[in-house]
Design brief:
single chain; about 290 residues; alpha/beta; two-stranded antiparallel ribbon; 8 helices; 11 strands; elongated
Amino acid sequence: MAESGSFTRAGRRLNLSQSAVSRQISALEESLKISLFHRHARGLVLTEQGEELYAVVQDVADRLSLALARINESREQPEGPLKITTTVTFGSAWLTARLNQFHLKYPEISVSLILTDTADLDLSSRQADMAIRFQPQTQPNLVQRRLMKIRYHLFASKDYLKRHGVPLQPEDLDRHELIVYGEDVPQPMKNMNWILDLGARHKRKPALRVNSVYGIYRAVRSGLGIAALPYYLSDESPELVEVLPEVEGPTSEAYIVYPEELRHSKRIAVLRDFLIQQAEEDPRALR
């Protein structure tokens, strides 16, 4: 109820009728002699007492989930649910392309992949079991393992280069359409828009700013202009051509991160080792 915001939506999730859910909540409120929800035309909002009860119940549910996971870990074959979170771009391109091999090797592990660019999920509260992140983590209750180093290079579509010509030196970028990361949002790494300064003889005005690396990739594929991309995206399209290949852009580090309490989890261990092996076998990943 607290997450659904209405009896109707809660009923759908629980496979119960709206009236059945309403009766159960009313019975609970009557037994506790408190109101758990404020009723509004737009939905339900927890009262102060309701928030306190919800926090306790959520904590119990998290502890139960952890206990069941530990029981499952005692079995010889790793099994059970495993939630992984990372960025939309890295998850859609590099990670999903490798999960088929993981599934074939560990079919009893049920993987849920949560991709988001807007906010990091809280691993300490078990919003996810493992994350792949691109900044070092400073929380003391998290385990961190380096996965790989990712370097950005400049790319354009064959169609764009046919229409606008191929830049032969960094100064030539002054005359080209450039696609960069949005400036009003947190950037995935430092100096993300280095293409604006590379060999510049005057201030460059980009043709497009977009707050998504995948969005930049799609714009490059469409023929809009030149942009910096990681190899795992450029390899997705044979239509992309590396521009100024002698120029090496900045790098970002990718880390595998998981809660300290899952340090001895077999599911975490096999996925961690699998991903590290995949990175070591990837000829384009920097070590």
